[in-house]
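Friendly challenge for the regulars: who can give me the structure tokens for this chain first? No prize, just bragging rights.
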Amino acid sequence: MIKKLTAIGNSYGLVIDRSILELLHITPDSELELSTDGTRLIIEPVRAGKGAPRRPPSRPAPPSRPAPPSRPTRPGKTRPPEPRYGFPKKQPW
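First reply, four minutes later:
Bragging rights claimed.
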């Protein structure tokens, strides 16, 4: 089977046929290990167990930013949200 790379933004991707993915039990959530022997690219699903290759630990996720404080409003008075870009719409009141 001969394949060509597909442009994806500034990178390239390889489309793998569904029949091959089903044969190897690879889902969109599967982790894949890429390696080379100098002339070939080897793509293998990462499997848990004794024969699974060791991977370096992943970096911890950066701390999440706290939500900005909300502005207090007067009871009974609500406003529609202003658009994110451009000029705000003229208010009907």
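The mean pLDDT is 75. Helices lie at 18-23. Your move, everyone else.
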